[in-house]
Design a protein that fits this description.
Number of strands: 2
Order of helices and strands: EEHHHH
Largest sheet: 2 strands, antiparallel
Distance between the termini: 33 Å
Radius of gyration: 14 Å
Strand content: 5-15%
Length: 84
């Protein structure tokens, strides 16, 4: 962590969790970008602001949160809820 312009930097991605699960979500993100229009729009917006690696990781994180809610609530995946 370091400070710049009185802002803390470098704590946004403190713990990545299980490396194998993270890999699986990145693979799912790559698949989603190819075949899911909502994820393509999200990815392109992120990619325009940063780069493709950060955009892929952001999409993987979004899919991980969606999986958490699927397991917690016992409901099927809803594209409109995830990418609205």
């Amino acid at each position: 962590m370091h400070t710049s312009n009185c802002k803390k930097k470098g704590e946004g991605n403190v713990k990545n969790g299980n490396k194998y699960l993270a890999w699986a979500f990145v693979e799912a993100a790559n698949f989603a970008v190819r075949f899911l229009p909502g994820s393509q729009r999200f990815y392109e917006r992120k990619k325009a602001k940063t780069n493709n690696i950060v955009a892929t990781k952001a999409l993987a994180h979004k899919l991980a949160r969606a999986c958490y809610h699927i397991l917690k609530e016992g409901k099927p995946f809803d594209v409109t809820r995830c990418f609205a």
